[in-house]
Design goal:
With 166 residues, this protein is α+β, with helices and mostly antiparallel strands. The chain contains 4 helices and 8 strands. Strands 1-2-3-4-8-7-6-5 form an 8-stranded antiparallel sheet. About 4% of the residues have low confidence.
Amino acid sequence: MLLASAGVVALLAALNWVPSLMQKDFVKQYNSIDEAKRFSGITTVLIPTYFPEGISWPASFIVAQKRPYQALVTEFRETASGKTSLIIIQSSSPDAEKQFQRIRISEIKEETEFPLKGRSATLRTGTCDNGMSCSSLMWQEGSIYHSVLFMSSPFELIKVSESMIR
């Protein structure tokens, strides 16, 4: 009886382990940006060197995936409220922003092309689905699409985004 129980437990453990082997390249949460970078295969991950006052480091939420496309997402919180305030998405697909952005601009008040350190970027300002004013900046560098959303004015967003480009 004890041997049969041990066999059933071993079988259940093996069956529980199989899905993780099959889905090893899909989205997974990480504790550090370096781990996520290695997993995703994105060779150059842009991290801001400028953080506005009140934004906490390190990232509070980090996810990455290899398939169906490479993606790395980092979220940073406000130190006072603990709410997500800055979201950075870097991906080999232009559609990653729609999939990974947990806070979205629900009402775009203005959209314009913006020169970002020699790159053509799209700047949007408006109201996010949490009711706060926010802005986003999107650009492509090589085969990687970058999207930065910040719960603040576009001026702070531009400073953060410019600090990502060296």
